[in-house]
Write a structure and sequence with these properties.
The complex is a heterodimer. Chain A is mainly alpha-helical. Chain A is about 70% helix and about 0% strand. In chain B, helix 1 runs antiparallel to helix 2 and helix 2 packs antiparallel against helix 3. The radius of gyration of chain B is 16 Å and the shape is elongated.
Chain lengths: ~190, ~100
């Protein structure tokens, strides 16, 4: 049973990731990423990481992806169209080929490093697990770790989130009127590819 | 399933993310591919956490999620600012960040 669920979730995760990279419209890419995140949450559950799976669904697939959907709807689909632009350093097929080559090389290397090492524990199912209210991966277990051994990373992460929120408001907040100089540069940049 | 199977999935997802970051031009999609890379790393962390049976990897994964949320907030803020200034939304043509 767990093998069956693993295969389904792994297909969802890899398929979702492929769709994010392959689809042309950013809006569909975002939706594919949601599928990917939900499949990953299932994998986390299979690995007995209950709290992380819940956070993944609620925070990641819920809140963060809503932000993406809004921004994609606001900005539009950019210009990820079939149109070739010869002005850029590399043409679109060359970029795709380069991306695929680097991806395949990295994948081979990672698989050799992870699986070819022949570590005994990698072949196993993991440490023994006994279900219970305070066992490995439950909210009580993670919460206790966060407030004892990992208190400083926890506080630093919360401060970082605060800084990021303030920074995002500053960046995306209402701007002053554009100066003539800026307008000119924008026109210049926009005209480069035409 | 063995831990190795989870690690293989995480390696595939990470490599797909890298390929996307290199090949895509729309900064929105580049951010999405960065998310893929972070999620691949997260899956590996949680698999290793299960392998050893202690919670360190899961804490690390939660911190990675917080970092990813920060990155999304700043990245999307930048994209909205770029859009407001009517600059092209294309990583090849955005060569400087000077406001």
């Amino acid at each position: 049973m767990s093998t069956f669920v693993f295969v389904l979730a792994a297909i969802g995760a890899v398929g979702g990731a492929t769709a994010v990279v392959a689809l042309r419209d950013p809006f569909y890419s975002v939706l594919a990423l949601v599928v990917h995140l939900l499949s990953l949450a299932v994998l986390f559950l299979l690995l007995r990481a209950e709290l992380v799976a819940a956070v993944q669904v609620v925070v990641y697939a819920g809140a963060v992806m809503v932000l993406y959907v809004f921004v994609v709807a606001y900005v539009g689909d950019g210009e990820e169209t079939l149109r070739e632009r010869f002005s850029s350093s590399l043409s679109q097929p060359a970029l795709r080929g380069l991306g695929a080559a680097v991806g395949v090389a990295l994948l081979t290397e990672l698989l050799i490093a992870l699986l070819g090492a022949g570590l005994k524990m990698v072949e196993g199912e993991g440490a023994p697990y006994h279900p219970g209210p305070r066992t490995f991966g439950t909210p009580a277990f993670i919460g206790k770790l966060l407030l004892t051994r990992f208190l400083i990373p926890f506080e630093v992460a919360s401060f970082l989130l605060l800084v990021a929120a303030v920074g995002a408001v500053l960046l995306a907040g209402r701007e002053r009127e554009r100066t003539v100089e800026e307008a000119e540069r924008a026109r210049e940049l926009a005209g480069v590819g035409r | 399933m063995t831990i190795g199977a989870y690690l293989a999935v995480s390696a595939i997802v990470f490599a797909l993310g890298v390929a996307g970051v290199i090949a895509k031009r729309n900064p929105l999609v580049v951010l999405l591919c960065l998310e893929l890379m972070l999620n691949g790393a997260n899956l590996a962390l949680i698999a290793f956490s299960r392998m050893w049976g202690n919670g360190d990897g899961q804490i690390f994964a939660l911190v990675v999620m917080a970092i990813a949320a920060c990155e999304v907030a700043i990245g999307l803020g930048l994209i909205v600012a770029i859009y407001r200034r009517q600059l092209p939304i294309d990583v090849d043509r955005l060569k400087e960040l000077k406001g």
